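Recap quiz, item 2
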Amino acid sequence: MKNKAITSRDDDFAKWYTDVVKAAKLATYSNVKGCIVFEPNGYAIWEKMQSILDQKFKETGHQNVYMPLLIPENLMKKEGELIDGFAPEVAWVTIGGQKKLEEKMCIRPTSETLFSDYYSSVVKSYRDLPLKYNQWCNVLRWEKETRPFLRSREFLWQEGHTVHETREEAEQETKMMLEIYRDFYENYLAIPVITGKKTEKEKFAGAEYTLTVEALMYNGISLQSATSHYFGQKFSKAYDITFLNRHNEQEYAYQTSWGTTTRMIGALIMVHSDDKGLVLPPKIAPRQVAIVPIGNDAEVLTKTNEVYDKLKTEGISCFVMDDDKSPGFKFAEAEVNGIPIRIEIGKRDLADDKITFVRRDTGEKMIEKANIDITTYITKLLDDIQNNLFYRAYERMQSLTYECHDLKEIEDIMANRPGFVKAMWCGNDKCEMKLKEINGTKARCILENDKMIDDKCVVCGKKAKHLVVWGIQY
Amino acid sequence: MKNKAITSRDDDFAKWYTDVVKAAKLATYSNVKGCIVFEPNGYAIWEKMQSILDQKFKETGHQNVYMPLLIPENLMKKEGELIDGFAPEVAWVTIGGQKKLEEKMCIRPTSETLFSDYYSSVVKSYRDLPLKYNQWCNVLRWEKETRPFLRSREFLWQEGHTVHETREEAEQETKMMLEIYRDFYENYLAIPVITGKKTEKEKFAGAEYTLTVEALMYNGISLQSATSHYFGQKFSKAYDITFLNRHNEQEYAYQTSWGTTTRMIGALIMVHSDDKGLVLPPKIAPRQVAIVPIGNDAEVLTKTNEVYDKLKTEGISCFVMDDDKSPGFKFAEAEVNGIPIRIEIGKRDLADDKITFVRRDTGEKMIEKANIDITTYITKLLDDIQNNLFYRAYERMQSLTYECHDLKEIEDIMANRPGFVKAMWCGNDKCEMKLKEINGTKARCILENDKMIDDKCVVCGKKAKHLVVWGIQY
């Protein structure tokens, strides 16, 4: 059933996206320009993401901390590349307690500065290392064009910041966190991704290099989905983080940072959802099963309670839609909100010893015996839905991934049916800029262990150095 | 064993407090004036508080949302009392994206304005009500004098904001949330409290009335610990939150708000902790049991693992102190960090079929059979510690609670051994101000169902209206 409040995604993808955000009550625009209100349905998805990632961070030896929101200008400016990168998009506090401040302070766009300043005061010896801290917080970047979840002035995220004794250990951490993100995207969000290294132009301001997780949306546009940065000693030199090493010498520490944001909610929408509204993978859905009793008959309510109790006991997140709205209204509501499974329990069905199950991902309706082993059935169905969503997205990504050998080919693809374009690159900035002229095509990442598909740069024809995935980005 | 890094709390309470914060690695001052860094040990306590309260909020029908950090000046000014109350202590953003803003924006000191603005756009009918939302976030108030956890420019908190169809329902919510806070303080933090209504002078700016939870610290100083406000229609009139009621008429909605903050960590320190460092009630301790193997002998390590596995399986939060530091160092570390129980496992003890348990609250050492039913024993001991901490604090509060009938009495008490002073009040501002001259004594709350202890105001001698608890506050 088409939802009338939702534009078709094939007609107008951007309008479809905001319609889904609104219809599923994930967020609304606020009267604060460029900022959204996270409504309960949207925030619950973020809470679920947090709980899973937070556990993975803790299992790998990280601890949570909390750094201040405000960064004094001088502290912010200590690392030159970072301030150059963020200066255009920070907000400055200039008045506090009715007085003009002697030194203005910016609202954190990211917290390398504060973590580094803290680390410089607590790290003394190799015995203090590693320190592997993370924080969940809000950050602010003064974006001009905004879109709910994908790009807004304020967003929520986590930022991990670690300090290590050796380059090897820090690089290991950078890789490990990338892998945690990849696993989270593929095995929880059911979103297939590619991973690799950013080019110099696209890396994080202040990093030695940036590893990235990149996903492809339904419309073929790329989304930078999570990043993990290796800093080497850049920040430790700027903020004077030294330690006495095992050879009794003072050495600058090695650092990393890594983060992902509420943008992941946008990715869920743009990869899985459809014209009926939100579609959520079971592992990330705050509510996995909607039970709809049809009518008020005693046997219907008894069965409803029985099903609810059994699922609840098994740790399956379910709820009963028992208000006075019509069954049709409830079906549509469960659908638009992306509840993975709907169970319909009606008097006539029960008389025939039947109950009905509906999958949100395919819309398929299954009629089963009323006394079916419900927890086994639902557990398996949730698994099937999770897997189906992943493979559907994986096949789409495959069908939108191209190998190109000349510019004309890339132009055609990006104009008609964009996606991930694999093409060789010489490593020169100018060639990278040339590709940007094609609808803003940018390097998503350098694939490091793939076979080279050609020996010439797709732009200049000179000797190629890297196999790069290119795409148009959000 | 006295901790050398910690001043005695009877010698210099303020210094003792900051020494404990530092020695237990809860927080450090940052280079951002008036703001602290929450270190892992401090933040873990906050996470534990969040997880318990959040569940209680959800069980009582609340949902989490997230509102913007920034509030445009005009939106902030719509409710007159609120802006008058907060104007002296807000921070203003005047520059964003390298441009002077047309309208300055303040960093939220509290979010009534944003919630009300949101509610005005989504509430249409009584069918939409109640809306019971909460958010966990950071807020900023430009305090002049700061102290870790108790008062800092930025702090973390939760703020619940609800909208109701009737006065009765909103007042019921106000009371229910006060009761949730009271229960949390007494049954989780092990801190006895008094509750009641704030005077007009002390209530929240913009509230019809404020209910409060007040606790007494070790040194007899009072701490406002959580508040629950009934707004009536004040904000709904200022922000135009109207709904079609059951009689088909437009009506202004009834609102509440309620909150508590990271200040609770300060309360834990000032109520329970001692000269050896932090003391935590087991229900709020992120780590409940420290297991210290003494030496590396096989039987010691086997027993250590056995104890650890058994406790872990039972859901008791325990950890093994197995680095290469000396046992004495580890004992001191477990002590300063407030781990409720320490288990010592040594070769000689095991040869005698014994293991040793040490309670952090009393320092008592208990030697038990090595094959004791460890989970039952520890579970009971954690309960005992939880109860003992509550009763110790309760007895102290009782011993520092006074009934006074004249001003001289109050002066003596507040100068020598301050605490909660019960005294009658006529309801006049001037008498309230007169008491403030006594070391800043303020009304903590009006006790509503208590017996009147006198018929005259303790200040002016005129007819008394209220029994009030007075105290010197943090």
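The radius of gyration of chain A is 25 Å.
Residues 374-399 of chain A form the longest helix (26 residues).
End of item.
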